[in-house]
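Folding problem:
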Amino acid sequence: RKCVNSLAYTSPPEAATQCITTNSGKFRPQAEINPTQYPAFTYEYMFSNMTEFVPGVDPTFRKDDFPEGITTVTIAVTDAATGCTDPDPLVLSICVDTIKPVIPFGSITSTSLGADNVITATTLPVTPTFTWGIPDDNMGSNPVYHVMATDASGELIIPETTVTGIPSFVMPTIFFDGEYTIMVRATDSAGNLGDWLALTFIVDTSKPTTVITQPQPYPIVEGSTVTIHAEAVSGMAYEMGSTFSYSLAGAAFSEFAASPLTFEVAEVGTHTVAIVSKDAAGNYGFDEISQSTSYAYYSFTVYGNNEYSQHCDQCSMTTTGPL
């Protein structure tokens, strides 16, 4: 029989959700019966997929094979002295979350990134801010993020640190050019730890040198299209993703474009073209001695249609230096 006066719980009937990372085991509800008012009582409980109460031992209950998600358990007590059953039983929601959070692939990015994941800064130091996507998590819980970073040798430059709230991290100041990798993973509120997601980026503030690698083959006849291949070189390596601009006979420089550069020359005679490079980070070709923009020059001779036999090997040359 049900009692008119409800048995007294020491916490509210609707307990807070408890997330667990296993689908079986023993669980103790976040509520207790007031032992001073009811010194002797028995427990019954019923899960949301059950049709009737079953006896329990103390306030502890056990269930195997919890489904992923929310399971509701209703816990009722009966006073041993009076036989009164609580008319307002405790309802407890149990959240089962065994799935680790996954940060969306390819979602790590930065407003400082340009083509080929090169930081678009031309001077040191740099302090890029990185963001990433919210993890895919079946319970939609608020994650804690873990972030660390290494340099090109794999040496740890940022020990693992935690970020809460907005999925964003400001890198500590980077003082040197090079390749770096930032790694992020998440822990959900149930304690599931996700896998690392990584992004490798490049800090490049070095000024490239423009090199003409393949000039137009001879002879060049009036009205021909001239094609010149160029590369931007930093140290001993080509700078991938670089673009080039040219000025023919002192005219205004063209828009930057990928190599090779092509243009038409209608006039017979000797012409000089100046070419400057810009790498993916936005650094322009630079002459370290004169501390000015450095161009590669190519001089060539254009012949009339009846002058093929007059061209000579000394009619063209390539030089590199400041304008």
User: Anything to note?
Assistant: The CA atoms of residues 19 and 190 lie 5 Å apart. The chain is about 0% helix and 45% strand.
